[in-house]
Write a structure and sequence with these properties.
Component of the exocyst complex involved in the docking of exocytic vesicles with fusion sites on the plasma membrane. About 10% of the residues have low confidence. The chain is built from 18 helices and no strands.
C-alpha cells in the first residue's frame, strides 16, 4: 500500500488521486456516522414504542397507570415512581438522541485523527496537499454531525415547550463533552471553512443557552407553582419531592452546570452553582409557605412546614447541595435548623394548650387532700368529664392521619407530646381518681396515663 501511494505521489501526472482518496475517505466516514445515527434513532423508537404501548389511552393499562401517577404517595422512597408533575420525567428518546450526538462527535474525531495519520504515513503529502485532502474529508461528516446536533436541539426545545424540564439532564452531558473537547475541536477546525467553525460555535452556544433557559424555567416553576392541592396528612408536598430530585440530578452534573452557567452569565464557575441552588431552595420555601396558608388549622399548617423543611434539610445534606450552597452562605444549615425548631414549637402549642386545661383546673379547684369522702361540685365534675376528655379526643382525631415520613422526627414528636400531656395528666389522674365523687368514675376518667401514652404513641406513622 505504501509502495502504491509512493508511485501515485511521485509518478502520477495529476493530483486526481488526492481528490479520489478524499472522496472515498469522506464517504466511508459519513456512512459509518449515518449507521451510528440510525442505530441511535432505532433504539429511541423502541423505547418510545414501549412507552406508548404501556400507556395507550384506549387500554385498561393506561387507565391504571394514570391512576397510579395521581396517587399521592406518603412513602417518600416511592415518590420517584409516582411523580405527579410531568416536568421532571426523563424521556428515553431524548436521552438516546443526546448520547447519539456525543457518540457521533467521539467517533468522528477518532476516525478523522486516524485519517490524518494514514495520510501522513502513506502519502507523505506536502503540508498544503495534506491540508486540502483532510479539509475535503472533514466538511461533509462534520456538517452531518452538526445537522444531528441541530435536530437534537429542536427536539429538546419541543420538550421544554411542553414543560418537560428534564431535557436539561440530556443537554448538560453534551455541553460538558463539547466544552471539554474544545481544544481538540479547534485542531480539527483548522481544516474547515470559517462558516463551519461559526456553525459549530452556534451549536455550542445554543446548547448552553437552552440549558440555562430550562433551569430558569424550573426556578420559575418552583416559585410560582399554582397547584392548590395540599396533603391532608401534612406529609412532604410533591413539589418538594420534585424540586429535590431535580437538584439531586443537577449535583451529578455539577461540573458541566458550572461551565454552562459561567459561560452564559459571565461569572466565576465557583459561584454560579451555589447561587442557582440557593435560588431553587429559596423559591421552594416561599411556595411552601404560600401553600401552607390553605390549611385552616394552625397546627396542621405548622406540621406541613415541619415535614417539608425537615425533608429538605435531610435531603440537601445527603446529596451534597448543602455543602455547595454553604460555600457562599455558611448560615444556611442554621437557618433550616431554626425553621424546624420554630415549626415544631408551633405544632406543639396545641398539646401545650391541652396540658394547660389541667393546670387551670387544678389551680381553680384545688383539694387540700384527696379524701375518699370529699365531694366535687357538679360544675367541677363536668369540667373533668368534658374539658380534658373532649379536647384530647379532638386533637387526637384531628391529628390521627398526620404522616411524618422522618422516623426519628416522628419518634421525637411522640415523646415530646407524651411528656407534655402526661406531666400534667398523671398527677391530676392520681389525685382526683381517688376522690369518691361518683359511682361511675370511668365516665369521668375515660383515660388512664397508660392509655394516653398508647394513643399518642400511635400518632405520626410514616405510612397510612
Amino acid at each position: 500500500l505504501k509502495a502504491l501511494s509512493n508511485w501515485l505521489v511521485n509518478d502520477s501526472p495529476t493530483k486526481d488521486y488526492l481528490n479520489i482518496y478524499a472522496d472515498v475517505a469522506c464517504t466511508s466516514i459519513l456512512k459509518i456516522l449515518k449507521s451510528i445515527s440510525e442505530t441511535s434513532k432505532n433504539n429511541a423508537s423502541v423505547e418510545e414504542l414501549k412507552l406508548n404501548s404501556a400507556t395507550r389511552k384506549d387500554s385498561k393499562a393506561w387507565m391504571l397507570n394514570r391512576k397510579t401517577l395521581r396517587q399521592y404517595s406518603a412513602d417518600l422512597t416511592n415518590r420517584r415512581v409516582t411523580l405527579a408533575v410531568e416536568n421532571v420525567t426523563k424521556e428515553g428518546a431524548l436521552e438516546n438522541s443526546a448520547e447519539g450526538v456525543v457518540f457521533l462527535f467521539v467517533s468522528f474525531m477518532i476516525m478523522f485523527q486516524n485519517e490524518g495519520k494514514l495520510v501522513d504515513s502513506l502519502f507523505r503529502f506536502s503540508q498544503s496537499d495534506a491540508h486540502v485532502c483532510l479539509k475535503s474529508v472533514l466538511v461533509k461528516p462534520l456538517n452531518y454531525i452538526l445537522d444531528c446536533a441541530k435536530e437534537f436541539l429542536q427536539q429538546a426545545h419541543r420538550n421544554l415547550g411542553r414543560n418537560d424540564l428534564a431535557a436539561v439532564f440530556c443537554l448538560l452531558p453534551l455541553s460538558k463533552y463539547i466544552h471539554r473537547s474544545q481544544d481538540r475541536f479547534k485542531e480539527f477546525m483548522k481544516f474547515s471553512e470559517p462558516v463551519l467553525q461559526e456553525r459549530f460555535d452556534t451549536i455550542l452556544k445554543s446548547v448552553d443557552s437552552t440549558c440555562v433557559d430550562a433551569l430558569e424555567k424550573f426556578v420559575d416553576h418552583v416559585k410560582n407553582d399554582q397547584e392548590k392541592f395540599i396533603p391532608s396528612d401534612c406529609t412532604v408536598h410533591q413539589l418538594t419531592s420534585n424540586a429535590l430530585i431535580f437538584l439531586e440530578q443537577l449535583m451529578i452534573e455539577s461540573q458541566a452546570l458550572a461551565v454552562v452557567l459561567s459561560s452564559q452569565q459571565k461569572e466565576s464557575p465557583t459561584t454560579v452553582v451555589p447561587k442557582l441552588l440557593a435560588r431553587v431552595l429559596s423559591a421552594l420555601g416561599l411556595n411552601l409557605r404560600n401553600k401552607a396558608e390553605f390549611y385552616t388549622d394552625s397546627s396542621l399548617k405548622a406540621m406541613f412546614m415541619l415535614n417539608n423543611t425537615s425533608h429538605i434539610l435531610k435531603t440537601i445534606r445527603k446529596v451534597g447541595v448543602l455543602r455547595v450552597v454553604s460555600e457562599q452562605n455558611r448560615d444556611v444549615e442554621q437557618y433550616y435548623n431554626d425553621q424546624i425548631a420554630l415549626f415544631k414549637s408551633q405544632y406543639m402549642q396545641s398539646w401545650v394548650n391541652l396540658g394547660a386545661i389541667l393546670t387551670y383546673f387544678q389551680q381553680n379547684h384545688c383539694l387540700a387532700s384527696p379524701l375518699l369522702n370529699q365531694r366535687l361540685r357538679e360544675k367541677e365534675r363536668e369540667q373533668i368529664k368534658s374539658d380534658f376528655n373532649r379536647h384530647f379526643e379532638l386533637i387526637t382525631n384531628d391529628h390521627r392521619d398526620i404522616v411524618v415520613p422522618d422516623v426519628n422526627l416522628a419518634s421525637k414528636l411522640r415523646e415530646d407530646c407524651q411528656k407534655i400531656v402526661l406531666s400534667k395528666y398523671r398527677p391530676f389522674y392520681e389525685k382526683y381518681r381517688q376522690v369518691n365523687f361518683t359511682k361511675n368514675p370511668d365516665k369521668y376518667f375515660k383515660y388512664t396515663p397508660e392509655s394516653i401514652a398508647n394513643t399518642i404513641g400511635n400518632l405520626f406513622n410514616a405510612t397510612l
